[in-house]
Design goal:
4 helices, alpha+beta, 2 domains, binds zinc ion
């Protein structure tokens, strides 16, 4: 870090301001960049709900739609500390998964998939959590 600062001609204050801004605006990136040896890398995580796994192999691509089907009842949910989190919703016996993610060019911030009966919905929920579907 000191070498980078010297090469860029930054003062210590400038470096600290940049680090503060990074911690505030991109906390997950700040951890990777500023505290790579910190083993407490989920410091902003309440550690209550599960985290979706990183996709393995060739995950099944679910069909996500940005149109809201209305408010369902939240049955299960993943932790919100990452870039993407998921909720399993019930609409009176029909189940969908809601995906909330940071805005990207090709992915809407909120989208929905499903329309399943319960056993099928839990199977897809399991696959999403285990990285076999996304
Ligand atoms: Zn978390």
């Amino acid at each position: 870090m000191t070498t980078v600062r010297r090469d860029l001609g930054l003062t210590r204050g400038e470096e600290q301001r940049a680090a503060q801004r990074l911690r505030r605006e991109y906390p997950w990136l700040a951890i990777l960049v500023l505290d790579p040896e910190d083993d407490d890398d989920w410091r902003l995580c309440p550690r209550v709900s599960p985290h979706p796994s990183i996709p393995v192999g060739q995950p099944v691509e679910l069909l996500w739609c940005a149109d809201s089907p209305g408010d369902g009842r939240v049955i299960e949910y993943t932790c919100t500390c990452g870039m993407t989190n998921y909720e399993l919703l019930s609409y009176g016996g029909i189940y969908r998964i809601r995906r909330v993610t940071v805005p990207r060019d090709d992915v809407p911030p909120v989208s929905y998939t499903g329309g399943w009966r319960r056993p099928e919905a839990y199977e897809w929920w399991r696959r999403v959590l285990s990285g076999q579907a996304r």
